[in-house]
Prior knowledge:
Helix content of chain A: 40-55%
Oligomer: homodimer
CATH architecture of the largest domain in chain A: 3-Layer(aba) Sandwich
Bound molecules: 3-isopropylmalic acid
Order of helices and strands of chain A: EHEHHEHEHEEEHEHEHEHEEHHEEH
Amino acid sequence: xxxxxxxxxxxxxxxxxxxxxxxxxxxxxxxxxxxxxxxxxxxxxxxxxxxxxxxxxxxxxxxxxxxxxxxxxxxxxxxxxxxxxxxxxxxxxxxxxxxxxxxxxxxxxxxxxxxxxxxxxxxxxxxxxxxxxxxxxxxxxxxxxxxxxxxxxxxxxxxxxxxxxxxxxxxxxxxxxxxxxxxxxxxxxxxxxxxxxxxxxxxxxxxxxxxxxxxxxxxxxxxxxxxxxxxxxxxxxxxxxxxxxxxxxxxxxxxxxxxxxxxxxxxxxxxxxxxxxxxxxxxxxxxxxxxxxxxxxxxxxxxxxxxxxxxxxxxxxxxxxxxxxxxxxxxxxxxxxxxxxxxxxxxxxxxxxxx
Amino acid sequence: xxxxxxxxxxxxxxxxxxxxxxxxxxxxxxxxxxxxxxxxxxxxxxxxxxxxxxxxxxxxxxxxxxxxxxxxxxxxxxxxxxxxxxxxxxxxxxxxxxxxxxxxxxxxxxxxxxxxxxxxxxxxxxxxxxxxxxxxxxxxxxxxxxxxxxxxxxxxxxxxxxxxxxxxxxxxxxxxxxxxxxxxxxxxxxxxxxxxxxxxxxxxxxxxxxxxxxxxxxxxxxxxxxxxxxxxxxxxxxxxxxxxxxxxxxxxxxxxxxxxxxxxxxxxxxxxxxxxxxxxxxxxxxxxxxxxxxxxxxxxxxxxxxxxxxxxxxxxxxxxxxxxxxxxxxxxxxxxxxxxxxxxxxxxxxxxxxx
Lengths: 355, 355
Ligand SMILES: CC(C)[C@H](C(=O)O)[C@@H](O)C(=O)O
Ligand SMILES: CC(C)[C@H](C(=O)O)[C@@H](O)C(=O)O
């Protein structure tokens, strides 16, 4: 298995180092050969090649079976022209490889529940996954620009083709089948035409999955429920912009952003895996970052791209054990009990458990 | 002063009755003559006139100085054609009267803090107001419809003119001036052209309000911060769709949706005032609804449309006292301490305090 490794910016390289150690340990144990090759993306790629997504990186990804990505962005690249901003690398790679299905699991870790801004009884039973459409909608619709004699009008376009909605909706149904068989489809059908089409397609697809219970929810209502009843969700599916907002809101539920992995998939096994957190320039290079989201992203890769269920679970269990043993990076540390550790020590603890 | 009163559907009429009693009590005390005239909107208007916003209602509002609205919607109107759905009445009246500035204050009531899904220390110091643009963006942009040979493409349009953004941004700055002088402008400038224009306009306007501290925040980040650090906000300003989502999320912070009023304003003193909660068909007609959001909407009307600051504060204090005395409608009731009351009793308690 060949893996393109794109550490990116900020804490990206640090957490990636930890994740690669974990990958190696799992490979050794199960006798898998993982071939990793590093490439540039984001600000690091702008510095090296003048582009946040250089042709070299695209080539590397094309000959790989999966991509591991750290994080992109930082203050030094914020004032570059639009096309050179680090996030263009991220949007570009999603579109280039048609990674239309962004999966973001949100699950409360027992030993971390006290870190949540929400009350214990509300967080306790949260175990959901958000499926966000990632290559359509307002992010890529045309026209997107200025109009009028004096550029006094700005326009963006929210556009979806039926087929784009169908593939993400079916992905979500199949996922729900393997979980608690509850699907919440989020839209704004009382206002948007794209949402009305979305709803029709969900209803049509639902016929093929009679065992899955489907619920339609308006996006404003979903934003409320994520705060006061997040435990009611199993799989939530929604379009790109709504998914951006709701999945970030949901990432706060557990209070441990540094723990959340994500996968961006297409129809075949190929996928991109990255932590939900960003590049955290303020702590970059200090050895303080929490590597667990990146490590759990490796587990998602093993599961979704390589079909290695057992290997994935082994990593997840090792992470759980390290947390149960009381080890905490700064983001999880609230003083008092437990043992404070840095990025490298945390990664090594997971590796130890695997060995 | 002439007020158009549109009770609407579900619990709308019940909470409106309470609010009108309170209005009368304040009028008597201060010797103001408020002339109220009722009209139809939403499902009630569909039943009566075949349209959710009949010409009669528009006429009534035109000859009034302000509008009080209860709530619209209910299951019996959900399958009507798009143009007859109750929410079209709401969207229509906003557009008809160019009520472009939707103000939604979110403030924790000391005696209700335990109702919040968030931990006490997070809710405690929340006192913010969301200023949502209400007559532009995705809600009204054209084209909005189906395209392609087989209607296989759906499109909505996010469009803003400079002047539309300027007026809402200045409104928000002026509000911030009167409060804690902190303005958070929310956009998605790393993806949307409309957001980039929005950000430029905020930066330009900021020069006229040097005493107001301005911060730009991406919408996904704002959705996170509302959950883990809501106390950091003073005034938040954003476009229509983002405002819909974020203000509903924010309405959960205090755990008392039944307490939140809102105002929809234009440049002059005219405005529409309504509770944030909906028509709650499940408890309609049972005398259980919480009238306080509607009552507090009356206070907002006195303040914003009639310049009656003292009168508004008197209502707000009366509400506070009734809560401090332990009275609770079903939505606030968690058993144990306090006294459970219904809609009418709650309204009468507020009236008593005023007399
Ligand atoms: C960086 C930005 C363009 C990106 C997005 O909005 O998709 C990010 O917020 C994310 O969710 O991955
Ligand atoms: C009913 C609906 C059209 C409306 C909106 O989206 O504006 C409502 O959610 C609101 O926030 O007032």
